[in-house]
Design brief:
With about 325 residues, this protein is of the alpha/beta class. It is about 20% helix and about 25% strand. The chain is built from seven helices and 19 strands. The structure holds flavin-adenine dinucleotide.
């Protein structure tokens, strides 16, 4: 997309640092960038506050000895970022142009001041550095009951929600490393863990498989898929799930208090196309111990660049690192 031909929106002033995403990573980056005096511009996308707005109580974010609602936690981050001078723009970024010649002729007389042009839904914003913090969305099963009981027995994060199932019975769906690691974590709290997999063997690493098979609290439901998640509405809670054996077509009911869906995440990177290097699942590749991407001046933070940990605190940490990396980049390019 060429800015000069296709966009009629008013360009805003050059942002020293433009941040894409309004979750813990984006807000933390904004707080650090703002405190460095670099007037960040932050594009929120559609989900202001990010994934934490989908959950109820958060008990593992340091500094909150009593549980805090996920939405309240990110709202505090937003207030702090804005108070320090972050400009929020409530739009999605559709494209990022690197070094657009029509806007930024680079000659000896006019040195390049804004090598990136970020195209929002209505607003165009040139930027000297960009931090990508667009998160990753957990893939769902798309079965009846999943949306209704999400946050009330259905979860995509064992590390976050496993604690709530002390001495209860849960099930986990998946077959890869994430499902295996989550399934090994759940018996620390749950009395019983059903591991549901649609095939008769797992993709997870062999060492993980060995640990799973040795764990007496874990029972495998091979060749099985979840067809429906059922429960009560007052109070809203999961009571059982309906399974189908894909080989025999036999249907069974499994009584559970919770269902963990661990079938992978979709990093929100489609809008980047091939602008920065991504791995085969779409996660942005960072340089080791850094938030630098394959494009100098573009940094990545949070779940979008973290296939492993995916926690609010790790997203915030990477947001802090990205802000400092962007600050150093700007100092070096003066
Ligand atoms: C149900 C649930 C419960 C959880 N519970 C916990 C918990 O208890 N403790 C914990 O530590 N973690 C928890 N997590 C994980 C935690 O929410 C994430 O690790 C964290 O939110 C990741 O932060 P992020 O900033 O990287 O991305 P996100 O929070 O996903 O934010 C991404 C942001 O990017 C924006 N965006 C996306 N595309 C664009 C675009 N093109 N242009 C502009 N903006 C865009 C979105 O609108 C959003 O604002 C939970 C997650 C879920 C889903």
């Amino acid at each position: 997309m060429d800015y000069s031909e296709n966009f009629s929106a008013d360009p805003v002033d050059i942002a020293p640092v433009l941040i894409v995403g309004a979750g813990p990573a984006g807000y933390t980056a904004a707080i650090y960038v703002a405190r460095a005096g670099l007037q960040p511009v932050l594009f929120t996308g559609a989900q202001i506050g990010g994934q934490l707005t989908q959950t109820t109580e958060v008990e593992n974010f340091p500094g909150f000895p009593d549980p805090i609602l996920g939405g309240d936690l990110v709202e505090r981050m937003r207030v702090q970022a804005e108070k320090l001078g972050t400009r929020l723009i409530f739009e999605r970024i559709l494209d990022i142009q690197n070094n657009p010649p029509s806007v930024q002729p680079q000659t000896k007389e006019t040195p390049l001041t804004a090598p990136f042009l970020c195209l929002g839904e209505k607003t165009v914003c040139p930027a000297r550095a960009v931090i990508l913090a667009t998160g990753a969305i957990a893939k769902g099963l798309n079965v009846p009951g999943e949306a209704e009981f999400h946050g009330y027995g259905v979860s995509s994060c064992a590390t976050c929600d496993g604690f709530f199932y002390r001495n209860k019975t849960v099930a986990i769906v998946g077959g890869g490393n994430t499902a295996a690691i989550d399934a090994l974590f759940l018996p620390h709290h749950a009395r019983k863990v059903f591991f549901i997999h649609r095939c008769d063997s797992l993709r997870a690493e062999k060492t993980l498989q060995e640990r799973l098979f040795k764990n007496e609290k874990i029972e495998f439901m091979w060749d099985s898929v979840v067809e429906e998640i059922c429960g009560e509405t007052n109070p809203r809670k999961v009571t059982h799930i309906l399974l189908k054996n894909v080989k025999t077509e036999k249907k069974t009911t499994l009584s559970v208090d919770g269902l963990f869906v661990a079938i992978g995440h979709s990093p929100q990177t489609d809008f980047l196309k091939d602008k920065v290097e991504r791995d085969k699942e779409g996660y942005i590749i960072r340089a080791p111990f850094s938030t630098k991407t394959s494009v100098p001046g573009i940094f990545a933070a949070g779940d979008v660049a973290d296939p492993t940990y995916k926690q609010a605190i790790t997203a915030a940490s990477l947001g802090c690192m990205a802000a400092l990396d962007a600050q150093h980049f700007l100092e070096e390019s003066l």
